[in-house]
Amino acid sequence: MQIVLLGPPGSGKGTLATDLVRIYKIAHISTGDIFRKNIKEKTPLGLEAESYIHQGMLVPDSVTIRMVEDRLTQPDCNAGFMLDGFPRTLPQAEALTDVLARRRQPLTAVLNISVSDETVIERLSSRRVCSVCGRSYNIYSLIPKVEGICDVCGGKIIQRADDQPETILQRLRTYYDQTLPLVQYYTDLGLLIEVNNEGAVGSSTDFVMSQLDARLAREQA
Ligand code: AMP
After folding, report:
1. CATH topology for the 2-116+178-205 domain
2. For every residue of 10-69, which 3-state class applies, written as one string?
3. What is the pLDDT of residue 199?
4. Are 150 and 132 in contact (CB under 8 A)?
């Protein structure tokens, strides 16, 4: 099963991806996580990506596409994968279509996760993350057992640099300008599944599973 998750920042892509990769036993490829790991380790890729990310802009396509193509060659992708945060531009989507055709591993579905702008702003400004394992928290609704410390790994909980108010608005603008056109691209390919993710964390997982299972059953019929 090969899935793409589309949706604005703060729409809950990461949380849904974490559930689905566990259920379907497929690789989780989050381009944001790969960039953040490289920034932390101060690799050449991290140094190049850092200023774009902190301004709420997209990392250039040439860099991002090469990075994802590389990741897809790792053996854990042979059993399927979930792309979380890629593609985000039309050239990225076209490059993905080409690379998957070469790999004979076509997309099963594209989940278009929608939430209102108000929800995005509210969720991102109250989001905190573990600096070690990346787990998400929320200062109102998902509070760690010990303040400032991750329940899972004991790492320090921080606010992401790009979750500051001005950067959140820029990330939303970037989404509307560059990523929204992909909804039409994938609708035309017959791959789009609409998912309203306005509700509580985890509330759309069952709906998504039923849609994916129906699609797999049709493919196998
Ligand atoms: P995310 O964690 O998915 O919100 O990504 C954090 C940031 O990483 C984004 O705001 C972009 O600056 C960068 N980024 C992640 N995925 C991509 C992509 N597919 N293309 C370009 N930049 C990306």
Report:
1. Rossmann fold (3.40.50)
2. CCCHHHHHHHHHHHHCCEEEEHHHHHHHHHHCCCHHHHHHHHHHHCCCCCCHHHHHHHHH
3. 82
4. yes
Q: Mind telling me the catalytic residues?
A: 13, 88, 127, 160, 171
Q: Is 8 in the pocket of ligand 1 (CB under 6 A)?
A: no
Dist. CA 152–CA 49, nearest whole Å = 28
| Best residue for ligand 1 mutational test, from 4, 13, 31 (most atoms within 8 Å of Cβ) | 31
Cβ 53 under 6 angstroms from ligand 1: yes
- What φ, ψ does residue 12 adopt, rounded to 5°? 100, 20
- Is the pLDDT at 15 greater than 90? The verdict is no
- Residue among 128, 147, 146 at smallest CA distance from 136: 128
**41-66, pLDDT tens digit by residue?**
999 999 999 999 999 999 999 999 99
Q: Which residues pair with 146 in a beta bridge?
A: 149
H or E element in which residue 194 lies? strand 192-196
Neighbours of 189 (CB within 10 A): 13
Q: What is the arithmetic mean of pLDDT over 114-125?
A: 93
Predicted structure pTM score? 0.91
Q: Tokens 């200062």 label which residue?
A: 139
C-beta of residue 139 within 8 angstroms of C-beta of residue 128: yes
CA-to-CA dists, residue 174 to 3, 88, 194, angstroms: 22, 9, 21
